[in-house]
Design goal:
This protein is mostly helical. It is about 75% helix and about 0% strand. It has two domains: about 80 residues, Tetratricopeptide repeat domain (Serine Threonine Protein Phosphatase 5, Tetratricopeptide repeat, Alpha Horseshoe); about 90 residues, Tetratricopeptide repeat domain (Serine Threonine Protein Phosphatase 5, Tetratricopeptide repeat).
Length: about 170
């Protein structure tokens, strides 16, 4: 393991990914994960970035594995469900399930963050998952909760825009 090398490879891969050079970024992410220490606090981020790349490459099954690993490692680093990295990892995996048309999986993975964290992220996923499941009234309630938890007017507006289909 060489975490410094893994982080440098991740930075290089991220630059390529952001530049749209996805096929060049992929082997750098794989190499970074080979060198990464699974106990290091940044390793879950490498898995999440790689998962994002795999999603863009239309490799949802591979992406799911890395989103799940990111969450698993975040929970090993800090089992506190209200910790921001844990909430973010659950959110990313929940978003992945929504994109994959699996609203119940999204709800399952985000559920621990609903009660633990005072952040709107989990409630946004919950609202979208409920909407996709046909539970409009519950989806609206979850959307309202996300709005209540918004940190400021700008965030509230972004949430309203994202969940616009809930309110005619």
């Amino acid at each position: 393991m060489d975490q410094a090398k893994a982080l440098q490879q991740t930075a290089d891969a991220s630059e390529l990914r952001l530049a749209g050079r996805l096929s060049e970024a992929e082997p750098l992410y794989r190499a970074a994960l080979d060198d990464a220490d699974p106990r290091h606090y940044r390793t879950p981020d490498i898995h999440a970035e790689y998962a994002s790349l795999l999603t863009r490459l239309n490799r949802a099954g591979d992406a799911e594995k890395h989103y799940e690993l990111a969450l698993k490692l975040e929970l090993q680093n800090d089992p506190d469900e209200s910790a921001a990295p844990v909430v973010a990892a659950r959110y990313c995996l929940g978003e992945h399930y929504l994109r994959s048309g699996e609203p119940e999986s999204a709800r399952r993975v985000i559920a621990p963050s609903l009660a633990a964290a005072g952040l709107p992220l989990a409630w946004i996923v919950e609202a979208e998952a409920l909407f996709l499941s046909g539970s409009l009234e519950d989806a609206r309630a979850a959307g309202e909760r996300a709005l209540q938890l918004a940190a400021n007017t700008e965030q509230r507006e972004r949430i309203q825009e994202r969940l616009a289909e809930l309110w005619p």
